[in-house]
Request: fold
Amino acid sequence: MHVIEGNSVSEEYAREGNKHFKQEFDIDLEFFPACSPGMLSPELRFQKYKVSTHGRKFKREIHVTEKACFCTHFELWKRCAKLGRSIVCFEHDARKNPDIEDYYDLKFKFERFVSKGSDYKKDDGIAILGQPPCTAYMMSPEFAESIVKAVYKYMELNDGLNMQADTFLMYYIELRNGHEPVRRTVFKQSKEYGQIIDHGPKDEALLNEPINK
Reply:
């Protein structure tokens, strides 16, 4: 789970999140220091303005917090590739969607994701668990390596990044799946629970299947 060290709001979100995931899924989270506006990754370059998500002509500057968020996920993608194993990423305000009342085994979901690896065609090395997508997702090291390379390539071709992390992640997934994104979606994040695992009940039928089937 990401936490902005020294930020009282982020640290409180993380403490509550740690208790929440232990209670809901019996999972102990490992905290990962998030980048702050004053500690951006030196490898990343950003354009002044971000691309319009609705094709409008007016320009909006990329906010420093959007840059920091991108840097945080980028560092995690690099770590995943270096570790050579799949990871689950949660932002500090990620929570189980309160509309999901049925039992949901997140550990099983992750074990299944790891056992299938990059051959898991349903997820293709990336499993988005909520909206906006960077709130919570599972990622294989193969996917992590490929998206890190894509970030470097995109920076070179466009003289810097002009998207926030959520938009870039979905943009890359669409291109990877052979689809040219025609419209980039605007994601609105709830500070209460982040809409995490809103697709969870769909996997309920898988709980009785052998993991290595």
Q: What stands out?
A: The first helix runs from residue 8 to 25. The mean pLDDT is 81. The first strand starts at residue 2 and ends at 3. Helices lie at 8-25, 64-83, 106-116, 141-158, 165-176.
